[in-house]
């Protein structure tokens, strides 16, 4: 269990045995029958400090109760056209499983625009994927592979990443902070592929600001990452943008059922139908309500704030250089 001692787990368990409703019920939704393993995740997120891990988990449970996270999978984004544009501008999908049984989530960082709906819809959608992963995907993987599987692999595609990404940093910070505080240690490894120069330059600056625990999880792969990823998964589980020899577009795929971002992909069909079904179970008579779920937006901690400001500064630096370069080209074209 790494840095976590059995004594720390026992102390943490004794503290959690004292919680009352409604925290007790939402804790059951979090641990899905594996309370000790869940305590380990929160302990790892706080470097084995029992008091800090306890506060973190209790704060997480309070956040879940206050924002009705236990019921978020019964709250579809409607109408269908709105759900489609959210999916088309927030690219994420399940491409398959690693040979160890970890779900492989593909994320189109570079081509996600987050500009077709309000922030609340994107946050709602992100949490719904998290909850579906934890309540449906991971339990099914555990059953299939015959052992407890509590985390996943993420492949981050940087195809199309531009300096305009500066405008998305606030939303991405909200999403990453929600994950850090409420879904810690859910990712085994982050594989970053199809990396443009702007990312490489910024990565050198921001990498030292990450916690060592996080840094060790990040692997920047050459090209589309196919050869490296085939060491841990079969070809059929590779995200569509990793199947070529070099880098490739992450949005377009000849067969939409192979494109794990597509609403026609089995993962999104199953997710959509599950949420729709849960909404009918919870409110079988009432019509589906339009409008996003407003989840409390957490503030990043001091370390996260420093990371964001440094990243913004670096992107702004390259944006200014890009602007200067464009001006020089214009002067040359005009014979100045």
Name the features.
336 residues; alpha/beta; 5-stranded mixed beta sheet
Topology:
Elements: H1 6-16, H2 23-31, H3 35-45, H4 50-66, H5 80-89, E1 92-97, E2 103-108, H6 119-145, E3 152-157, H7 169-182, E4 187-193, H8 197-206, H9 212-215, E5 218-220, H10 226-229, H11 266-282, H12 302-333
Parallel strand pairs: 2-3, 3-4, 4-5
Antiparallel strand pairs: 1-2
Helix pairs in contact: 1-3, 1-4, 2-3, 2-4, 3-4, 8-12
Walk me through what this model shows.
Helix content is 49%, strand content 8%. It has helices spanning 6-16, 23-31, 35-45, 50-66, 80-89, 119-145, 169-182, 197-206, 212-215, 226-229, 266-282, 302-333; strands at 92-97, 103-108, 152-157, 187-193, 218-220. A five-stranded mixed sheet has the order 1-2-3-4-5. α1 (6-16) packs across α3 (35-45), α2 packs across α3 (35-45) and α2 crosses α4. The radius of gyration is 21 Å and the shape is globular. Mean pLDDT is 86; it is low at 323-336. It comes from Escallonia herrerae. It holds the Pfam family CRAL_TRIO. This is CRAL-TRIO domain-containing protein. Residues 82-250 form the CRAL-TRIO domain.
């Amino acid at each position: 269990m790494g840095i976590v001692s059995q004594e720390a787990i026992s102390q943490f368990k004794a503290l959690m045995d004292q919680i009352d409703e409604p925290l007790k019920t939402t804790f059951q939704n979090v641990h899905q029958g594996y309370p000790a393993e869940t305590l380990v995740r929160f302990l790892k997120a706080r470097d084995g400090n029992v008091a800090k891990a306890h506060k973190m988990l209790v704060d997480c449970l309070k956040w879940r109760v206050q924002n009705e996270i236990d019921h978020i999978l019964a709250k579809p984004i409607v109408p269908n056209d709105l759900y489609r544009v959210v999916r088309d501008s927030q690219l994420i999908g399940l491409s398959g499983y690693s040979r160890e049984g970890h779900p492989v989530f593909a994320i189109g960082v570079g081509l996600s625009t987050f500009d077709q709906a309000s922030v609340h819809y994107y946050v709602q959608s992100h949490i719904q994927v998290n909850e579906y992963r934890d309540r449906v995907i991971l339990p099914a993987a555990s059953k299939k592979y015959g052992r407890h599987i509590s985390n996943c692999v993420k492949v981050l595609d940087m195809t199309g990443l531009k300096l305009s990404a500066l405008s998305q940093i606030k939303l991405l910070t909200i999403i990453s902070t929600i994950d850090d505080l409420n879904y810690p240690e859910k990712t085994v490894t982050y594989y970053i592929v199809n990396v443009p120069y702007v990312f490489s330059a910024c990565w050198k600056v921001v990498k030292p600001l990450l916690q060592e625990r996080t840094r060790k999880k990040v692997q920047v792969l050459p090209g589309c990452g196919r050869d490296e990823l085939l060491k841990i998964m079969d070809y059929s589980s590779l995200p569509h943008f990793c199947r070529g020899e070099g880098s490739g577009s992450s949005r377009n795929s000849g067969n939409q059922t192979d494109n794990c971002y597509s609403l026609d992909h089995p993962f999104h069909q199953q997710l959509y139908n599950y949420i729709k079904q849960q909404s009918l179970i919870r409110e079988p008579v009432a019509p589906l309500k339009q409008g996003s779920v407003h989840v409390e937006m957490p503030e990043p901690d001091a370390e996260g704030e420093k990371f964001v400001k440094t990243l913004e500064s670096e992107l702004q630096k390259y944006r200014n250089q890009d602007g200067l370069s464009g001006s020089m080209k214009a002067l040359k074209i005009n014979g100045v």
